[in-house]
Amino acid sequence: MSLNRRLLLTAGTATLAAPAIARALPWRKFTVILDWFVNPDHAPLFAARYCGAFKRAGLMVDLIAPTDPDLPPRLLAAGKADAALSYQPQLYLLVDQGLPVRRTGTLIDNPLNTLTALKRSGIKTLADLKGRKIGYSVAGVETVLIGTMLRHAGLSLHDVTLVNVNFNLITALRAGEVDAVIGTFRTYEDIELAQDGLDPVIFYPEDYGVPPSDELILLSNTAGLHNPALPRFLHALKEGVAALHADPEGMLKQFLKDHPKLNDKLDIASWHALPPYFASDPAALNTHRYIVYRDFMAKAGLIKAALPLRDYAVAVTS
What we know:
Layout lengths: L14 E2 L11 E6 L9 H8 L2 H4 L2 E6 L7 H6 L5 E4 L1 H9 L4 E8 L4 E6 L14 E4 L4 H12 L8 E4 L4 H6 L5 E6 L3 H7 L4 E4 L12 E6 L7 H18 L1 H11 L6 H9 L13 H13 L15 E2 L2
């Protein structure tokens, strides 16, 4: 399912000047297009609203759920929003396609993606996937992730059968159409499987040769990198993360009041599982991580060239 920057004077990152704080600045509307439908991944954004951080920053923040998860970066590139949520692996593909977007913040700074099987399949290690079917949703990146993980276990893509199950990962796994799937989240689908007594067997890609990546990031249009509202937004988001950690139950109560359809066992469990994964400083840019993953994408042939870091990510002061 599934913003913020700080001033870094370092080669390879663009430095953006930011006002100290917004009380003396005019009110400004700031539009953020979410990566998909509203869910607990977005908790810091709502916490920033509930604790008054956006108001203190002089911002009227609109959080918009897209009708299609492919739309946010393209709407952003077309100037229809001030920011959009996306994923670090997708960032390189967007830039490779020539879209004028840059990463300017991080909402979730740890990977959530997993490769998951069920205990009943008899799969205990990656080596047990030999001769099995693995379901995936997105060709390209996910195929590369599977191949990388298998090589770490002495296997290759030739040892398994890949099945495109679109986005019906859990349905296909439950029905036995595949023996494992990639693209489940450790804070959502894996919890769902455990709640249903299906005993998920979970493999973390970063344990099997895949470089760790930021799960959920904030993109800005290159034309808006000097938008004075951007550092104000990032500062407020940092306050939102702190407020979420300080009062997770209070924030959850307000979130469920605003989104009653999410008042269920799974979404509540996901809400409580996510806090360790939220970036405490959304503006911080892990330059090493972005360079390593860029090189991983280039080596796998997913992007045409490994561009300078500044062509993918910039740091904004708060």
